[in-house]
Structures are given as structure tokens and as C-alpha cells.
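Case study.
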Amino acid sequence: MSTNTVSVTHENVAILSTPINRGDQPHGVLGKLSRALSPMKGPLATTLKYASLVAACLAAVLPLVTIFMASFKTTQEYRETGPLDGPENWFNFDNFVTAFMQGGMVRGFMNTGIILVCALTGTIIIGTMTAYAIDRFEFRGRKLVVGAFLLATLVPGVTTQVATFQVVSGLGLFNTLWAGIVLFMGTDIISIYIFLQFIRAIPRSLDEAAMLDGANRLTIYARVIFPLLRPAIATVIIIKGIAIYNEFYLPYLYMPKRSLGVISTSLFRFEGPFGAQWEVICAGTVLVIVPTLVAFLFLQRHIYNGLVSGATK
Amino acid sequence: MTTTTVSDEAAPRERAARPRRKRGRDSGDGRIGQGGWRLTPWLFLLVPVGMLVLFTYYPLANMVWYSFTSWDGLDPVKEPVGLQNYIEVFTRPEMFQVLLVSLYYLVGAIVQLILALYLATVLSFNTRFRNFFKGVIFFPYLINGVAIGLVFLYFFRPGGTLDAITAMFGLTEPPLWLGDPDIVNISLAATSVWRYMGLNFVLFLGAIQSIPAELYEAADLDGASSWDKFRFIIAPGISRITGLTAILAISGALSVFEMPFVMTGGANGSATFVIQTIETAFTYRKVGLASAMAVVLLVIVLLVSWIQRRLIPDDGGELV
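After joint prediction, the assembly is written out as follows.
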């Protein structure tokens, strides 16, 4: 990206630098506007800028804040107060207890935890092996394999479930935790992509040196490449972990049994039994959001970087 | 088991034949073949490629096949019906309804892009609390989809947050945000904007910040205004990511699923193409017809990606 866009901008700067103070040769409507306002621009622009940022933050936060407030209200209080009023007692955790115990959130967190650990382990092993094979070997069919992985990123997962469903039930995985684990492991291409980008930066001379010491390919993969991929593994754990934690449709379709509820499906089932008890639904929602918030606060930088490398593939 | 024995036999012959055949394209690491025999890469790829085939390509092939049958998902016999499913996909009146619905999301995606671009630009100039603003605007993207669905069910419900806010501005009889078929898709598209805008915003911000600072300094020396800087430095610098997201918005708008599924279940005319496909397959058990719908969507998505690759050249960071 950088090389060609930068050259474009250089040209533009050249265009821009010569006639810059022609004063009133406006570039489009906005240019005209900005020039018209220029005498009082400093303070006004700053005010506008912060006003719009604050408005955006309010829009982002307000729906969450009202849910948060409602989760502390008693049933009666909820009925009598508006959504914008705070709760009487900020330490009323009754709704959280109800959500946890009756809503099956404990089980949800446990199932999600099991799937997370298994699927992440699998993804890391599979992804690093694939990246190693693709980057370090010259073999017939290599292009085909790479192409197959690339093409698979384009297939919208939700729709092919019509046919994947037959495979999963044919394997006898329907209504087992394995359905979730295997599907999260088997259909992940973004992590392979991230591993590939990292493995390229590991000098091949390391492989060769190890080989001179008599290491075979498996040893090189396990002892040289894998440990050096640690930053990539961290990135994959973060973005894949968030994706698994948030996934709703796969568990909904393949693990409908109540005892297999993950947090998404458990929370989804709140809509029925607690339909009239919004304060409990709100508490359940807060329970699901809080771990995400904590993870975000601690891992901000990694999350930004990981998502950018994953999203612009 | 059998494969290993076969390959053991084959290995010596291959090794003998190798120098002659490979000399042409042998690069630096050709010598590495010491302990690695021809099948080594495939041993590493066995599981990954196996899973890729089993969970992506095999279902895909099946789906194409189902789309030419009237299969119900259970019957051992799959009756071939030719193109009938495809004809039905393109002639059903519901089809136009769902296409109309995806237009709402497309408009939403455009609004989202503009908002994200504006906020990213504003934030890229000297700003206090930059990280705070960035974090708050981005955070919704990370939240669990079902949780977002419930948050906005509460937000839009009669007497909910939105009604309370509009009441402050004197609107005493608010519409049913999710109950009125004329409004429901706007509400849902707005929810999608709320959810995904943060990602666009961070991507734009990253692209803007990767523009070398000297360009801004040069522009400052020349007395450029903020608008000039946007027009001549930022806009060209982020054209690639803008094009990418704009085109992805098209396939994104067609494959909307989670938000309406969680919030309305597709009621009140809010069903999207994917919701309809899923319902056709798993509620009405018309796997053949649903497969045809899925194939149509797949073809559209592939087409859009192909156009994207033609219009926006890669930065060379591709896999091969």
C-alpha cells in the first residue's frame, strides 16, 4: 500500500505547494465553506471537532450505560423508573445472581471456555504447520493449496451451513461440543494468513543452520519456527479468541441442546423465559460484555494491530 | 498406514529422478532435500487441507449438487429437478423484498463509511484524549452480537432508551422502532452501523497515521488548511482502504444475518437474504431451494470480490 499511495501524495503536495496561497480558489463546496469560515476558524473548528467526538462517544456509550443501569434495578423499580434514571442501589446484584443461576450463564461460560481452549490450540497447531509447509517447501501443488485457502476466505460461512450441516451430522458431531471445536478449527483462514506473514520474516538461514546440526523437518518446525512465531500466536489467540467468544450462529445451529449452551446461545435464550424481566436480561448482557471490556482494556494495542492485519487481508 | 508404505517404495525412485526434473527451478533451498523427502510438506498439510476440504469444499460441492434437486434434508433419495430451484429463487416475490431490505444496509454501510472517515480524520489531527476517544468509538465492534442485539432491543423497545431520549426533545408519541415495517429496517441498519463503524474507523485511522508526517509538515509550511490537507494528503493516502471497504459493503449488505436474526427473527419485513435461506433450509426443510439461494449469494460475493481485485490492485503482500 505505502509505496504507490505515497508517490501519489507526493505529486499532490507538489501541486498543492506552488499555488497554495491563491487565496480564493476553492476546492469544492467544503473548501469554500472552510475558507469562508477561516477568520474565526481556530476556536470554532476546535469546538466542532470536540463536539462531534463527544457526540460519537455518547452514541457509542449511551445504549450500554442504560443497560448497565437497568441491571441493578429491582423489578418494581424497573417498572417505575425511566431508562435514563439510575438505580437506587448500585450494589443490588440480585439480577446478576438470577442470570447466572437460572439463565445458565455458568454453563455458558464453561462451554465457551472449553471450546476456546481446544479450538485455539488446534488453530495454532494447524495454522503454524500450514504456514511452515507453504513457506518453507517448494512442491508440486503448492500454488493449488495456497489458492484453495485463499478462495475459501471468500465463501460466506453462514450460507454454506446448509450443506456443512450434513457433513457435521454425518460425522456424528451434531449436538456435541466437538461440532463447535472442529468447525472453529477447520474453517479458519485468517490465522493461517497471519502466520504466513510472520513466518516470512524468519530468516531461512536459521532452518539451514539447524539442518546442518542434523535436525529433521519436524524438529525444525517444533524447535525453531514455532517458538519464533510467538508474537503471531499471541495475535491469533486474541482475534480468534474474540471471534469464538462472540460467535452465535455455529453453536446455535450445531449445539441446540441446552446443556451445550455457550454464552451467545445462553444469552439468546434469555429472550424467552425472561421476556418480561428486562432487568435480568440486562444483567445477563452486562455479564457477557464485561469480559470483553476487561480484555480490551488490557490488550488494546494488540487488538488494534491484530484486527488491522486480519481485516485488510 | 498404506500411504506411508507406498511412499516409502516410491521415495528412492523419486529421489533418483529428481535432479533431472527439478534443476530448472531449483532455488537456494533446493539442497535442503537432505532428510526431507517429497511428501514431507504434505505430512504437514494433511490435517489442514483435510479439514479445508471436509468443511469448506466438500459442502460447497454438495451444495451445488443439492441446488439441482428437490431434497428435503432427510430423504435418502435426492430427486433431480433441473433448474427449477433457480427459477424459483428469481421469481419469488419475497426475493424482491429481501433485496430491498439489503438496500437499507447498503445505505447504512455508506453512512458508516462517511462517519468513520470523518471521525478518523478529525482524530488524526492534534487531539487531546485521543486514545480515549479511539477506544470508546471502537469498543462496540468487540461486543458479542447477541449482547448487542439485546442492548438494542432495550434501546428501541416502547418506553426504552430511545423513547426516553426523544421524549426529552418533546416527541411524545414515538413510533414502534422495531414494530413498524416502514421503520424496522432503518433501526436495524442503524444498529449495524453502531456495531461495525468502530472497525472502519480504526482501519482509516491506521491508514491516515501511516502517511509520513513530513507531508503534513510540508503542507503546514505552505499554509495549507485542514481541508487542503484532507483533500490532498489524506484522501489519496487512504484511497485503497476506502475502495476496499466500499466494495466489501456490497457483499456485506447482502449477507447481513446476525443483527436482524437476534432482534426480530426476521419479522415485520426485516428478513434478509441469509435469514430467508436459513429458514428455507432448516424451518421449511427445502434444502434444495435453500442451496440454490446460497449458490446465488456465493456467486454474487465472488463476483464482487473479483471486481474488487480488478479495481484495487494488491499491495504485493499477497500469499504467493
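Observations recorded in class. Chain B touches chain A through 121 residues (CB under 8 Å). Residues 1-35, 316-320 of chain B have pLDDT under 50 and may be disordered. We will return to this complex in the next lecture.
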